[in-house]
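thought: fold this chain, then report.
action: predict
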Amino acid sequence: MRVAHLLSGREGGGIATVVSQLIRNFDPDLVDSRVLLLSSSPLWLKEARIPPERCRLVKKRWRGSLLVVLRIVAYCLKHDIDILHTHSIASNFYGRLAGLCIPRMAVVTTVHARTFDELQGAVRSRVLARGLYSLDRWMHRFSSQIIAVSESLREALIAEGVPAEKIATVRHGIDCGAIKVTPAEVEAARRALRIKEGIRVIGVVGRLTRVKNHELFIQAGKQLVQKHNDLVLLIVGDGPRRGELEALVRESSLDSRTIFTGWVSRVYPVLHLLDVLVVPSLSEGFGYILLEGMACGRPVVATRVSEIPQIIEDGKTGLLVPPDDVQALVVAIDYLLHHPQHRKVMGEMARREVARRFPLSQEVKG
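observation:
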């Protein structure tokens, strides 16, 4: 079976990691996997160790150009692709149109997050976001099957009118055994970020978009640095809101206590620097960073939204707080900072639980 994964080329974090893990772990004798990109190849392709001959750039010359559909069709015909697997709003649009041109080829769409939430984070105009959301929703009919990465997403898709029998739920998994981080790598990350030994670090990891709610993290950080003079805030990732968030950090007088890392190709050494991983999201399709943080033995403080309560067991593998509640977030983080032994036990429990409940093998089988 020949499968081509169609990506926008700008995915970072969870989607990029999930796709690269799937490609590396499918039996190559059973599944011939390839990658098609709508824009320049990101650094994660190198990290994923995907051979260059398995990747193809089908670049958009301008937004909305339909010429890319012809390139996708030509590639799929040339390489006799059986399944075109789309993973983002842009790849859904172009991939489904390509699928209409090749009736024998199945188009499988994985929905990694709530579409409108993602569009609000990426598109300035709410009217445009609403229009693109409606288009994506209407085009669900052109996918042979839709994969939801959580039950909450499956329910949302059904509410949008997608037939239940067309949706399969396949939760993400993680290969904990493959996450090997040496003390030298952690120390190199510390030096690169200029974090002094003995400084405590709380951090948020993810694309800088509105749905990730970095404001809540910054607001909580403003109170926490007054309680802990050895505390640094780490904001890992990049995105359209970086300038806005940097301005908020300056206005909050947190310049000297906050580090923006930008996009990082290998997040695990950075995760090992954290005393507490914070996930303040307003919504999450799944929240793959939770699995990554748990696999690294980090205690998590997260908002009680979407699928997060199905991943984090409150009081056991992390602490859950109401969404957009800065005081609750401050109290939870402050508690873990004041109780290092509980932090350690919680992190160890998180590592064991994620290996038991979210093995990568279950996603590959799905």
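thought: worth noting. The mean pLDDT is 91.
final: tokens above.
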